[in-house]
Amino acid sequence: MPSIPARRRNPFTATVGKTPPVLAGRDAFLRDFDSAIWDGPGSHERISIVTGPRGVGKTVLLNEFESVARAHAWHVISETTTAGFNDRIRDRAYRLLQDISEKPKRRITGATGPLNLGITTEATSTFSPTPSLRSVLDELFEQQSALDARLGQEPVGLLITLDELHYAHMDEIVEFGTTIQHLVREDHEIAVAMAGIPGAVKPLLAADEGRNPVTFLRRANRIETGMVPVGEVRDALEQTTAQVGVSWSNEALDAAADATGGYPFMIQLVGQHAFRNLSGDTIDVDAVKNGIADARRKLGQLVHEPSLADLSEVDRTFLTAMSVDDGPSRMSDIARRMGVDSQYAGNYRKRLIDAEMIRPTAHGYVDYELPYMREYLRSHPATEAMEQFSFWPE
């Protein structure tokens, strides 16, 4: 009976938020963050906001910041900005405090509710309030500083990462920001890295005529993740498959790199699906062609659909009006297809640029920011209607 050849495991990780085996185009951000940890409290990059459309590697960058912090022996708390995230950070910080404290402090052992983690406490007639995020973090840094002094070691800090930052949780973000500003003023070894799509983050950064209290966000280091140079994409594809003994033909590697458009998530999708079609130890052009078609379909499901869902109906109409063109769209044509005047269309142009769904090209022209958005929209019936009529109802 003939033996079945061993099947190699696919080295690509086409899952949103998962760090790929070879990270392309983000070295400068990681170097800056590493330097900020070395430089000490007050370094600008210790408080950073990562923005960009879906699929450009925001969560992956947070993962890498966590790896850098752990390499410095720092504590790491990773959270998502959903309801109650301050309480979850507080609980995690309390667990860290338990790990490093020789004896829990009395004001902590009086905790009730979410912080009652199976600790036996003595009955007391005095009022013992539930600790706040600020009080727990203050205690954590105090205990860690004492431990560092006893051991004669470099200060051990804390990195908090917050994914999916969103203005819908403004009140909790204000509370969190107030706590972080206090810790920064006290020169504690604290770092915070946050990430979110532009439309969800922009209202948090607005001055709002002085009424917006989230000043720590406006002063933060801003990282705008974007496309990766094609040369670096090529290297990443080649290095990833080399780890499992698979190579590319030169023509296939060029075609795959070009097909990604430098879009980080597409790098993994094209690589993953091309790898599934490999023959022997080499990925050839046919494998890449088949892989690109599969990758485009998956991109629509995982990136385009949720990106469009975040937009208003008129935003989507604007994008659909663009899809009639084979390249950059002229604003006057978009307005005509929508049946609106240039000023009205211009307002939505600004909204979509801010959301990083489109980008200006030549004067009076715009193009899609996400790769294959045009093809995705063309596959929907709304585009056919757009082609037949010179206007589009709101």
Overall description:
It contains 17 helices and ten strands. By secondary structure, it is an alpha/beta fold. It folds into three domains: 198 residues, 3-Layer(aba) Sandwich (Rossmann fold); 78 residues, Helicase, Ruva Protein, domain 3 (Orthogonal Bundle), CATH 1.10.8; 78 residues, Winged helix-like DNA-binding domain superfamily/Winged helix DNA-binding domain (Arc Repressor Mutant, subunit A), CATH 1.10.10. The strands form three sheets. Strands 2-3-4-1-5 form a five-stranded parallel sheet, with helices on both faces. A three-stranded antiparallel sheet has the order 8-10-9. The chain has a two-stranded parallel ribbon with strand order 6-7. A hairpin with a 4-residue loop joins β9 and β10. The N and C termini lie far apart (67 Å). The N terminus and C terminus are likely disordered.
Just give the CATH class of the largest domain. Alpha Beta
- How many helices? The count is 17
Looking at CATH, the homologous superfamily of the largest domain is P-loop containing nucleotide triphosphate hydrolases
Number of strands: 10
Tally of distinct domains? 3
If you compute it from the alpha carbons, what radius of gyration comes out, rounded to the nearest whole angstrom? Answer: 25 Å
Return residue spans where pLDDT drops below 50 for at least 5 consecutive residues. Answer: 1-5, 103-128, 388-394
The CATH level-2 architecture of the largest domain is identified as 3-Layer(aba) Sandwich
Instruction: Determine the N-to-C terminus distance.
Output: 67 Å
CATH topology of the largest domain: Rossmann fold
Q: Tell me about the largest β-sheet.
A: 5 strands, parallel
Shape: globular
GO molecular function, one term: ATP binding
Pfam family, one: AAA_16
Organism: Corynebacterium lehmanniae
Keywords: ATP-binding, Nucleotide-binding
